[in-house]
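Input (structure):
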């Protein structure tokens, strides 16, 4: 498809009305328009309104140069070095205004820098609205809402694709995936979250080109995974990533375990629950989701160290560290997040130790709730943790007195513990308690 003249959809022919547009974005559009520039809403916001969804952010494209935009707005910041973008700041709300740009001539954009929207900005040149449309990724992302007459301008056939529920790459899919392999993930993300199918010619090369993701920086891949985690279709997206051989580029250790039904079950139960939370407007912590993906690789490492004469807590620590180190080779997970994932996994060990004041202290741990939720999911997935699971449910939901009684009962009913105390005095290398249903 190569439409030269755009199709113009009059106001009566589409559903983008001004009351669905962020008032700050409207202000920016009107100020540009009143100053004599052309001004369009473009990208995800137009697509989402047409699909009757709430847009995440509102992006504007214009023929005004960045400096010209700055002159119009006191609350404007210019960002980016080679390709400058204007951020119009309204408190927490930021409206991004980009000058129309044209496609880089040799099509080699893989090493470019990206904006917060993820567009590549190195070596771009300013262009016309038509150039700007053809350099976007999918046809449904290249629809322009014109504030001058409330029409939608469609150069690439996006409106028809949207009506047919299709994600279609603009131009030659293979070439465009080579230019920027993140588009492989974007195709999956939009298909998953919007419930659209990927058109056959766009879908065709995905599996064969999945290896291209190895050329993408781990920082950019991490950002894409975060988006997957926050968009309310994590289960569907997970299945699509698996189907198109893309999951192994993001979570290699987890992918290796997908032949194990228990790992698939854990992910399905956890991701299904996550999507429900997001639909209810609740938040999900990325640390928790990473812990879900990494828990079974951690268990595998723990099992691999079974013969080693090391205390259990050391084995857990080592296993978690090993898995996180490997994982951060694929995704640049920030250090604070790594720490939280580590804690959620390590708390699975601390759940085993239910003596004295330990369980009470655990309740105050900042990662307790996430770790407790992981324990519940492990049980739901079929891990042999019935005893610990039931105990912690009783403890968590009990009154202070009930909790004290539970701890007392556990301490006195464990003859091993008394013996171990005795042994520990004689041999300091003895291991701390291990529940019979821990992963080892
Ligand atoms: P979301 O709802 O996730 O924000 P979006 O379509 O708005 O979806 P953004 O990442 O915010 O996605 O990008 C805004 C627009 O910039 C896209 O709609 C698309 O037109 C263009 N774009 C973003 N990334 C790329 C890319 N890698 N290649 C080509 N065009 C891109
Ligand atoms: Mg967007």
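Output (sequence):
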């Amino acid at each position: 498809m190569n439409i030269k003249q755009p199709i113009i959809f009059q106001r009566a022919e589409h559903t983008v009305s001004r009351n669905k547009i962020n008032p700050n974005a409207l202000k920016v559009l009107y100020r540009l328009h009143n100053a004599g520039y052309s001004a369009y809403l473009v990208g995800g916001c137009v697509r989402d309104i047409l699909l009757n969804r709430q847009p995440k952010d509102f992006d504007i494209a214009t023929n005004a140069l960045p400096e010209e935009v700055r002159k119009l707005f006191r609350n404007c910041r210019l960002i980016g070095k080679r390709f400058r973008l204007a951020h119009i700041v309204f408190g927490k709300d930021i409206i991004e205004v980009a000058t129309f740009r044209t496609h880089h001539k040799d099509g080699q954009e893989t090493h470019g820098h990206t904006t917060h929207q993820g567009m590549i900005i190195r070596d771009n040149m300013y262009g016309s609205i038509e150039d700007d449309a053809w350099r976007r990724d999918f046809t449904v992302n290249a629809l322009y809402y014109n504030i001058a007459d409330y029409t939608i301008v469609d150069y690439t056939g996006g409106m028809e694709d949207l009506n047919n529920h299709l994600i279609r790459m603009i131009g030659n899919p293979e070439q465009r995936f080579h230019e920027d392999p993140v588009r492989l993930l974007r195709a999956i993300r939009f298909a998953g979250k919007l419930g659209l199918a990927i058109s056959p010619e766009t879908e065709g090369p995905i599996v064969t080109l999945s290896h291209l993701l190895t050329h993408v920086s781990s920082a950019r891949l991490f950002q894409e995974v975060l988006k997957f985690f926050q968009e309310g279709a994590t289960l569907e997206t997970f299945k699509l990533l698996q189907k198109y051989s893309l999951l192994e580029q993001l979570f290699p250790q987890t992918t290796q375990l997908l032949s194990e039904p228990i790992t698939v079950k854990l992910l399905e139960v956890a991701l299904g629950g996550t999507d429900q939370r997001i639909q209810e407007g609740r938040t999900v912590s990325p640390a928790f989701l990473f812990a879900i993906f990494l828990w079974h690789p951690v268990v595998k490492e723990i099992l691999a160290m079974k013969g080693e004469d090391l205390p259990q807590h050391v084995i857990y620590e080592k296993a978690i560290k090993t898995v996180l180190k490997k994982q951060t080779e694929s995704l640049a997970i920030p250090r604070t997040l790594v720490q939280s994932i580590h804690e959620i996994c390590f708390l699975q060990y601390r759940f085993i130790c239910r003596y004295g004041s330990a369980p009470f202290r655990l309740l105050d741990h900042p990662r307790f709730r996430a770790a407790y939720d992981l324990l519940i999911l492990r049980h739901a997935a079929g891990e042999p943790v019935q005893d610990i699971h039931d105990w912690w449910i009783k403890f968590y939901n009990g009154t202070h007195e009930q909790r004290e009684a539970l701890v007392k009962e556990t301490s006195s009913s464990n003859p091993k513990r008394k013996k171990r105390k005795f042994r520990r005095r004689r041999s300091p290398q003895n291991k701390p308690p291990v529940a019979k249903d821990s992963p080892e």
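Notes: The radius of gyration is 26 Å. Residues 1-171 form a domain with the Beta Polymerase; domain 2 fold (CATH 3.30.460.10).
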